[in-house]
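::Amino acid chain::
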Amino acid sequence: MGNIDLGKEKINKLLLTFSIPCVISMLINSIYNIVDQIFIGKGVGTLGNAATNVIFPLVIVFNAIASLVGNGAAANMSLKLGENKKNEASKGVGQALLIIILVSLVLGLISFFAMPKLVLLFGCTKNVYDYALEYGRIISVGAPFMIIYSALSNIIRADGSPKYSMIMLVVGAIINIILDPIFIFVFNKGVAGGAIATVIGQFVSFILAILYIKKFKSVKISKKTMKLDKDVFRVLGLGLSSFITQCTVLILFVFMNNMMTKLGANSKYGADIPLSVYGVISKINSIYISLVLGVSIGAQPIIGFNYGAGNKERVKEILRKVLTVNLIIGILFNLVFIFFPERLVGIFIKKSDPSYKLFMEFAVFMCHSFYLIMGLNALEMTGSISIQSLGKVKKATAFSFIRQIILLIPISLLLSLVFNKGIYGIAYAGCISDGICFIIALFMIGSEYRSLGKKDYTSEEESKIKNNSYDGKHIVVTISREYASGGRYVGKLLADTLGINFYDKELIELAANESGLSKKYIEETDEESRKTENDDRIFIAESKVIKKLAKNESCVIVGRCADYILKDNKDVIKVFLYSDEESKVNRAVKYYGLDKKNALKQINKINKEREKHYKFYTNRNWKDFSNYDLIINVDAKGVENTALYIKEYLK
């Protein structure tokens, strides 16, 4: 990956190299919104602050799309490069680039024309409506620029150029900061001025991101790599956790905006002040989130590469250090929110503003209730990104749902509506859900960490791993076979005759230990056409097990693309066994209990699945006999004689 060896370089150096630029990049995204809010707050007031808060869910949508494609492509790149599959890494980036361009253009157009309905959906009040509509339409014009450069920034970091990614975003942010006061105060453009400054800054970052495409070090982008096929779903799947995380934030933000206006209207604060305060404090909180996610996402390519390369102890060390740093960040921010809330929110409003007193009162209350133990969120955020880096999308996705969807929203509704606590119930729901989420995250991360420490084999299985040989030679026989051809029985007889170990179904348990997936799941999808990220993990795990077995002992291995996995091993004899239709049907009925009437159809279906599976992972044809050393019709010799024939060949 570039000139940096992610598998051997000191971890502290790698984390500094990747995480610091990533942290700065994440902070820049927060600064875009915060700077607008500061200048708009000073220039327009509470209603201007509320307007930027109303549009913020739209910004979250843009970030969600960028995360889905960018993080997915970045994680895929790291894993594939760790497995030394550069062509697949290039293909993933090319597909991601095409998708992000198309989707960003469509999303920008839709948001522009649907803005009147969107602002109402996002919790806009009557007083804020015109400000929100004006600000939002300009922001939607810049949507393609923001989405494309945000997605590419993740891929650029994974390519080993975190500094370029950082500079790309910093330049845009500086331009935004310079132009904000000019457009808002000098040209007297109000909320529109803040939006225009933001879009100009985003456009500059976009240009720098596009210029990098020809400079990729680890992958090569061409028209061929940008061709879409089913592999794109695997790439996007790796970014699904980030996407869902953003979606849960979106749902929470829209929920909170609407609850603030609805419940606030029945309090002394009114509807506009809670809406504005929640927006302001959320933007401040986004700095904390940016730091934690920046460290975690910066570590993502390091974790992914080492996990793909099988360096589990190194992965564990990275996780320990990332968790420690992020928990320290969380505690420090938590203390600031508790002891200095007035100073935090004071920069967003003028003291001469008529609503200043109530604004500050509600802001302090939110810091001391909703955000009371916010520092504990660091564990949940770190865990979600880190587990995503290991390719475990489902578990990472579960993290994303815990606080916002499963805990915070139901608890908020319970306290505010059922127990009639009103807007105060919403505030207390925040710290309650944070506490529960922290406990759940401890168990989930602990389980994942322990799984990294599992041995590849149990003590019983380890006893099988021995440096045995046949006739004083190290030799491995791989057997590819048609279903019901008798191939498994041939392999077992051959292994017994040679006095070496036999592996067929035995590989399932070994792969389960390697991947962390259940034995039952692997059995159900064994040698089928794979469709999910877990299935890719099965193949990776089986490949590692097969290579390890072939290195340590003489053995017979049936199926699992072993002939391809061991294609560069000089000690391997590759055999393909087939049979005529009548014999296959008779065996299937006798040994596998298939109905004779439908047996041939079922046999052909299974063989088709094996053929597709083999093609998917090897890019070779299963029945291309040039791939094998021996091709034998089992019926021509019989099962026993076929095993003896292979034995004679070995001599």
